[in-house]
Amino acid sequence: MSDTNGPRRAAQQMQEAARYLARAARNLDTPSDSHEILRSLLETQGSIAQTIRELAEWHRAAAAGTYYSRPHDESARGVMTAVSELDLAAQEADALQETLNRAHGGSSVVDWLETPDAEASEPEPSPKKPRND
Questions:
Q1: Does the pLDDT of residue 97 top 60, yes or no?
Q2: Most-buried pick from 65, 84, 98, 100 (CB within 10 A)?
Q3: Which of 7, 50, 32 lies closest to 112 in space, CA to CA?
């Protein structure tokens, strides 16, 4: 694999892995796995945010006549749009990572059972509040 195909192939592999995870996460046989999945998602999101920032910097440095045709106003506008939107995506990716971090923290205090208790599958009724009529 050449260096130029490395990032593209890595992105394709991540896409395939994400599709597999989305299907696999529909049913967790071991409830405690959810905590480890959140940890992996948190770390992966950090890498995604870094990749977005690096793509923004690469687009910011893309030179007319070297990386795209000059003069070509549509290409120049496209590069500027990509930079602007990638900067925004990086901010949103950082926010998502913070949200995942809080979810992971919440999950870390749960006393997960290794196998679900079949009898406890019904949620316990919440206590009734007194009516103020």
A1: yes
A2: 100
A3: 32
Residue 5 host element (H or E): none
Between CA 26 and CA 106 the distance in angstroms is 20
The rounded distance, in Å, linking the Cα atoms of 128 and 7 is: 56
Give dist(CA 94, CA 83) in Å, integer: 17
Q: State the residue for tokens 């900067």.
A: 87
In this structure, how many other beta carbons lie within 10 angstroms of the beta carbon of residue 15?
10
Contacts for 96 with CB less than 8 Å, ≥ 6 apart: 45, 49
| Contacts for 110 with CB less than 8 Å, ≥ 6 apart | 35
3-state secondary structure of 52: helix
89, two tokens: 């995506």
Q: Is 0.85 surpassed by the pTM of this model?
A: no
pLDDT at 114: 83
